Amino acid sequence: MSRPRSKQPSGAPGAAQHGAVPATANGPWQRVGRRVAYQNPWLTVWHDDVIRPDGAPGIYGVVHFANRAIGILALDEEDRVLLVGQHRYPLDTYSWEIPEGGGGPDESALEAARRELAEETGFRAGSWRELGRAALSNSVTDELAIFFIATDLQSGAAAPEGTEALQTRWVPFAEALAMTLDGRIDDALSILAIQREALERAAAAPSP
Amino acid sequence: MSRPRSKQPSGAPGAAQHGAVPATANGPWQRVGRRVAYQNPWLTVWHDDVIRPDGAPGIYGVVHFANRAIGILALDEEDRVLLVGQHRYPLDTYSWEIPEGGGGPDESALEAARRELAEETGFRAGSWRELGRAALSNSVTDELAIFFIATDLQSGAAAPEGTEALQTRWVPFAEALAMTLDGRIDDALSILAIQREALERAAAAPSP
């Protein structure tokens, strides 16, 4: 398939019967079978046999994330944004972003945010507010992003994981916003947080 | 691992040797082996054996997307936004979004955008401009989103795929923006496009 945009019939008649689960409704879809195709500590791939909305048999590969994607827009008293730089393996590129990490099922999003900010940067924040949420790629994954604004910062010792070779830098908020507009920041979660905050400031500004 | 946030050593000494590929640098990481763990027409999962930035052996599961995620912010002459409603299987929820679809390797992003808008909604647009790009989930996937603004619309016959049970509605731009802020729109690509346009309008507005 040169342009595999749709879910085509999966073929073999017996294929829909593996997994031995009754058909499960998923909106206008039906799941008639599921197998775990891949699993690691961060993600599980389910390969589902489905009946599509048009009634034809098909497949759906779902990438299930173990963690929520937690992002922190940390602002100091000079209204500068804390950015973290690291190499992103899936894209093989260096990326400047807000501090981010995975929030596990045994902690709240806020607890995860506090922990990730402290681990990656050493900073603690006296004031936290949830800015927003988003489903990052909802045609394939169930990954949910939750992003916070953190102020009243106090520095401390960072404790990054062995996988994290991080740099940090401070940029004025207006510069961080400009970076999201010209591509110097292209990480979706970072853009969502910075642009959300920019819109809230614009809405709060006095009208002409 | 209750909170698998880091890439732990993969264990068996022989594991790093499968795939028979020389070590490949990926920033401060090294890939010493790769196998295709799962593949369907939309995504490939690579399970890589790696040397982490701290020198320890580990794994990296990468979700490689066959297509770019293309989004279209379509505005009519009354400054209303065209929204598409559909059930999103991975989240098992209904979602209102801008028109979106997969852009394949054999077409430009703009060609894909034109095609997706026409297929999903029947609309053609006389004027197109790229609004922005984003890496949707760069710690796990290589999925790239590219989003356009489309104006000077002409209606026609839609030709959705069999997987797409779509509704459409028009909402005033200000309402669409409000939906991205209160969670009625939570799809990241839709939020990125609508909020980007809102920021560009705010920047263009006369100063008080």
Report what the structure shows.
2 copies of one chain form a homodimer. Chain A contains 3 helices and 11 strands; from the N terminus they run ββββββββαβββαα. Chain A has 208 residues and is an alpha+beta fold. A 4-stranded antiparallel sheet of chain A has the order 1-2-3-4, with no helix packed on it. Chain A folds into 2 domains: 15-65, no CATH class; 68-204, Alpha-Beta Complex (Nucleoside Triphosphate Pyrophosphohydrolase). The model of chain A is unreliable at 1-17 (pLDDT under 50). Chains A and B meet through strand 2, strand 3, strand 4, strand 7 and strand 8 of A and strand 2, strand 3, strand 4, strand 7 and strand 8 of B.
Quickly describe the structure.
Chain A has 208 residues and is an alpha+beta fold. Chain A has helices at residues 109-121, 173-182, 188-204, and strands at 24-26, 29-39, 43-51, 57-65, 68-74, 80-88, 93-97, 100-103, 124-135, 144-154, 167-172.
How would the blueprint of this fold be written?
The structure is a homodimer of 208-residue chains.
Chain A (H helix, E strand, L loop, with lengths): L23 E3 L2 E11 L3 E9 L5 E9 L2 E7 L5 E9 L4 E5 L2 E4 L5 H13 L2 E12 L8 E11 L12 E6 H10 L5 H17 L4
Parallel strand pairs in A: 5-10
Antiparallel strand pairs in A: 1-2, 2-3, 3-4, 5-8, 6-7, 6-11, 9-10
Helix pairs in contact in A: 2-3
